[in-house]
Amino acid sequence: MLPYLCLVLCWLALPLQGLEILDPEEVEYIRSHTTATVGGSVTLDCGSVMPTIFIWGYTKPGTDNNRAVAVAYNYGQGPKLQSQSSSMGRLWVPEDTTALVIEDVQQDAAGMYTCQALYDTDEGARITFYLTRLDVEDH
Predict the structure, then answer these.
(1) What is the CATH number of the domain that holds 73?
(2) 48, 42 in Cβ contact below 8 A?
(3) What's the confidence (pLDDT) of residue 128?
(4) Considering the domain boundaries, does residue 52 fall inside one?
(5) What's the N-to-C CA distance of the chain in angstroms?
(6) Is residue 34 part of a domain?
(7) Is 106 contained in some domain?
(8) How far is 110 from 40, CA to CA, in rounded Å?
(9) CB under 8 Å to 135, separation ≥6 — which residues?
(10) What domain range includes position 132?
């Protein structure tokens, strides 16, 4: 996961100029598990405080490939969804939230979702990973 974090932070380097990252041992991990039904909807949480930047990623069961499904900026730019996520259902990020909503959930939506939330604080940058395992059941 650390190489993925480095890749993401390098990709986001321009908007984060001057941001100092805390020691990786101070990174917080919050784990959860939820279940959705095919055709239904589910909301995945990424904390209750709006971070400076957050990125939703997805890992398909049985693989190590974590790919971004949504990138959102708290700079008034709003979320950017990746087009390959359509086989999972309709994904969207409600305005002024960090939540990832999946409507018309498909079986392909099952897997591990990771929200990487970067908070720019007076004490420096803080990163929290919200890891949610989503199981999808038939009707």
Answers:
(1) 2.60.40.10
(2) no
(3) 94
(4) yes
(5) 34
(6) no
(7) yes
(8) 13
(9) 33, 34, 35, 36, 110
(10) 42-139
The DSSP code for 38 is: T
Q: Regarding beta strands 53-59 and 66-73, do their DSSP bridges make them parallel or antiparallel, or are they unpaired?
A: antiparallel
Mean pLDDT of 98-116: 93
pLDDT in tens, 39-96: 999 999 999 888 888 889 899 888 887 777 777 655 556 666 666 557 889 988 888 8
Domain count, the chain: 1
What's the confidence (pLDDT) of residue 25? 56
| 53 lies in some domain | yes
Q: How confident is the model at residue 131 (pLDDT cuts 50, 70, 90)?
A: very high
Secondary structure (DSSP) of 48-91: SS--SEEEEEEE-TT---EEEEEEEETTTTEEEE-GGGGGG-EE
Q: Are strands 28-37 and 124-137 parallel, antiparallel or unpaired?
A: parallel
| Region for 60 from its dihedrals, namely left if φ exceeds 0, alpha if ψ lies in -120 to 50, beta otherwise | beta
